[in-house]
Amino acid sequence: MMTCISGIPGTGKSSVSAVLKRMGHDVVLQNDTTGNYFICDDPDRDAAVIDEDLWASEFRPVNGIVEGHLTHLLECDRLVILRCRPDVLKERLVLRGYSPEKVHENVEAEALDTILIEALENHKEDIILELDTTERTPEEIATEIDDFIHGRRGANFGNTDWSEYLGTMI
Ligand SMILES: Nc1ncnc2c1ncn2[C@@H]1O[C@H](COP(=O)(O)OP(=O)(O)OP(=O)(O)O)[C@@H](O)[C@H]1O
């Protein structure tokens, strides 16, 4: 069974995945699988552009967890989307040294539910679990994901609404 953990950069995917790995889950990093799909560097965003559709269509399923901000594009059995309140996400990304443009782009995408919307275009609702990481530890989030993977809790999404942040601090 393959579980994907997606979310805007800074929502806590790596932190949560590290805990899940310690709990015994096999974790594959998206960035370790995209090398053959490189198109060019994007200096404005300080990121590589990859052929996302080709990567997603050629991805070989794994029995475990795949973590990365594009993994909601993959076919999978369970999909977890991590969320973070825009003002807190902004702090996390500024601390990382992201440029103001990159902070804005990511925080706006979070406020607009971008990943959830894309996920709903590709997946059935009953495999999606959305978790707000804002005021919770990676350990708490990892426990919820472990419960989801093992069927001890069900799918759930649509409970975050960051629209009040649009057009204000971002
Ligand atoms: N639940 C949390 N509570 C507080 N801080 C957190 C939490 N999760 C992550 N952080 C902090 O937020 C920052 C970003 O976390 P992390 O690298 O896990 O995000 P990410 O979603 O994996 O980002 P990327 O997609 O760029 O790899 C880190 O400084 C991390 O310590």
Automatic annotation (TrEMBL):
GO terms classed as biological process: ribosomal small subunit biogenesis; rRNA processing
Molecular functions (GO terms): AMP kinase activity; ATP binding; ATP hydrolysis activity
Catalytic activity: ATP + H2O = ADP + phosphate + H(+); AMP + ATP = 2 ADP
Residues given in the record as ATP binding sites: 10, 12-15, 96
Source species, domain of life: Archaea
Pfam families on file: AAA_18 (PF13238)
Enzyme Commission numbers on file: 2.7.4.3
Alphabetically ordered keywords of this record: ATP-binding, Kinase, Nucleotide-binding, Ribosome biogenesis, rRNA processing, Transferase
Keyword Signal set for record: no
Principal EC category: transferase
Region ranges (LID): 95-105
Cited function: Broad-specificity nucleoside monophosphate (NMP) kinase that catalyzes the reversible transfer of the terminal phosphate group between nucleoside triphosphates and monophosphates. Has also ATPase activity. Involved in the late maturation steps of the 30S ribosomal particles, specifically 16S rRNA maturation. While NMP activity is not required for ribosome maturation, ATPase activity is. Associates transiently with small ribosomal subunit protein uS11. ATP hydrolysis breaks the interaction with uS11.
HAMAP family: Adenylate_kinase_AK6
Entry similarity comment: Belongs to the adenylate kinase family. AK6 subfamily.
PANTHER family found in the cross-reference section: ADENYLATE KINASE ISOENZYME 6, POS9-ACTIVATING FACTOR FAP7-RELATED
Subunit structure: Interacts with uS11. Not a structural component of 40S pre-ribosomes, but transiently interacts with them by binding to uS11.
Record protein name field: Putative adenylate kinase
Organism of provenance: Methanolacinia petrolearia (strain DSM 11571 / OCM 486 / SEBR 4847) (Methanoplanus petrolearius)
